[in-house]
Amino acid sequence: MSELIEAVIGSEEKGDLREFASFLRQQEKRYLLRNDILTAFSEYATNRQKPENFYKSSNLEKLIYYTQEIIREDSNLYLIIRPKIASQEVYRLTEDLAVDRITVQELLDLRDRFVNHFHPHEGDLLELDFGPFYDYSPTIRDPKNIGNGVQLLNRYLSSKLLQEPGQWQEALFNFLRVHTYNGVQLLIDERIRSQQQLSDRVKKALTFLNDLPNHQSYEEFRFELQTMGFAPGWGNTAGRVRETLEMLDESIDSSDRQTLEAFLSRIPMVFKIVLVSPHGWFGQEGVLGRPDTGGQVVYVLDQAKGLEKQLQEDITLAGLDVLNIHPKVIILTRLIPNSDGTRCNQRLEKVYGTENAWILRVPFREFNPNMTNNWISRFEIWPYLETYAIDAEKELLAEFHGRPDLIVGNYSDGNLVAFLLARRLKVTQCNIAHALEKSKYLFSNLYWQESEEAYHFSLHFTADLLAMNAANFIMTSTYQEIVGTPDSVGQYESYKCFTMPDLYHVVNGIELFSPKFNVVAPGVNENVYFPYTRHEDRIESDRDRLEQMLFEREDPTQIFGKLEDPRKHPLFSMARLDRIKNLTGLAECFGKSQELQAHSNLILIAGKLRVEETTDREERAEIEKLYRIIDEYNLHGKIRWLGVRLPKSDSGEIYRIIADRQGIFVQPALFEAFGLTILESMISGLPTFATQFGGPLEIIQDKVNGFYINPTHLDETAERILEFISKCDRDPHYWHEISQRAIDRVYSTYTWKIHTTRLLSLARIYGFWNFTSQENREDLLRYIESLFYLLFKPRAQRLLEQHMQR
Ligand code: UDP
Ligand code: LCN
């Protein structure tokens, strides 16, 4: 990158750079983000009356493109440049165009000075650096392979087996010996006492199996295998057992990456899984649309169902039906005594449609009943988590009659609890973020002190750092969740280096090139959400009732607005009313466009209609704003706002009804980590317009099976929708084309079957990796523990004291 700067300075573009720098010095803003920089650059070009294509493909233009931030201090400009995904360089540009590269530490000091929180005379700030702890693990080289960590890990493990066969074959042998189910030995028993013996017996068993027909059932030759030292778990037929043993044989002898992966993925070692999701209202009915309860609950419930099914399938294939094994999945959440009509005050609830998946609710200890008996915002939850983990551990041990085999954390709080549990129980830990708040709230770290009272980001971000580093593996829904796009920083990437002024500096918060990251997107519940054309599966009475509710019914307690012409194409959106979801932005976009109003009605499903119904700060503000917009643009007669919380089956039918009327779905979030509503609308067959900020960018292929919008540009968004509408007017097939491609996209890429197969394969492979690398990780875990006790806990205690006074 320095060459690019040199190239600008060493050419006639130098004059332009000087001018642009001086233009920036005259701006009021001293901290420019990428959008500001691009806007400033185009303003500058217009001001100077440069011809339109003047900068195209110049070095200066490239430099501006790569610059993520510019901070001005006195007459110096600091350019934070992201030359490629997951890397960063910082340069100081002086008035006379001298350029120096500065260090991460200098950058963090600069940011502290920017917010007037730089106090060098008071001593250095605590510096957090997780980098050195990753020395033991392999590293991805090419950023495009980030998010496919398991591939690298398998390559690494198979090359170890080849290069250091003594140590690694021994490790594999020891690993195969440890698996039991309720005290019953699996895979190999005490008759096989060494790695060498294993190798010999595998060959012997293969000779024996070669004489059996493929389909012969395991039960019929179980005892012959047992005498050779092979316990159950290798397969349910002669063919399957042979295949698995051949994989082992090959993994040992030729160390092929794919074979090793396939072999490890078959190891019967996961029967009991905990999915940790403490915050919010976690239930199967009446909770969606409440604050803090949205996609995560949908995701975890569907995942639990999918996991049970997949585990059952795997158990059968492994030949373990002979042991009568019943896999168990527990969703661990909090019990909320004042449960407001939901079942969140029940200790145990079976997950519908499963044999052995449960919601286990453990209460927070009663520090102050005003707080702990009620729903607690995810931003306030921190003081309760450590004791919660201790209490939950006991309950889990009792429910499972032993330890679980895998602990999956969800969101920042769940991941912290997952870390505490995994550490105590010595179990593989997987993290799922759903959304990391740091990149959602702009400048949330730099101004953390100003917003601490409301958001407690000092605890939140510390918890994130600890949990993400402790996790054995991290699953994300998209690639960009980890490292963004060429022009935007990823959510995990934003934890790499940042300042929490007066609290600490993070110089290396997470190793983005570690193999722990894997992209495994969620699916959508195909029993509830399916194409509108599947008339045979739709219930007519439900359709009539919901049509009435959407377009006609008058019920001021739940529905706002009466449509002048209910036949217009519906423009539909459904989300919780939080600021980032930006339903108010969509209303404003609709309000500003007469043409859009002429073609469509705006139909919004958003949990509430009245400020009195919520204690959530953001929700109240959004409700008030939505009413303001409706009045300001006089949207009466053109909008229906439903303050309802729908049962799941109804929400599926709603999308289909909108599709019956050739409507569209709009997801206008300012940022969306993934966006389950997008999958739901697409599988229903609705042309979907979704925000270009975040996950939708990977779900939708623009103009192929949906459309991107930039929700901060209201006119442009309206134009994009109108363009589609007028294309549909001209060509009646167009709507159907996009609709069908949306459906195909979801079925081919976003199913729970794909997700759970992958997750279980990862659990086994990282389980092996955890087994072999435990000693190497101990120093990292000790560091994390120290930070938990010395940094996190005292702050959480202080927050608890504040809560006690409420
Ligand atoms: N949802 C719902 N009723 C509402 C709002 C949302 O049923 O009033 C459901 C919606 O169908 C989807 C989930 O909640 O399954 C929202 O997930 P998404 O990933 O879109 O957003 P999140 O709320 O998790 O940020
Ligand atoms: C949280 C979000 O914000 C959404 O973008 C996701 O779809 C949801 O969780 C499920 O992961």
TrEMBL record:
Its EC number is 2.4.1.13. GO terms for molecular function: sucrose synthase activity. Residues 562-728 form the Glycosyl transferase family domain. It comes from the Bacteria. Residues 148-236 form the Sucrose synthase EPBD domain. PANTHER family: PTHR45839, SUCROSE SYNTHASE 1. Belongs to the glycosyltransferase 1 family. This is Sucrose synthase.
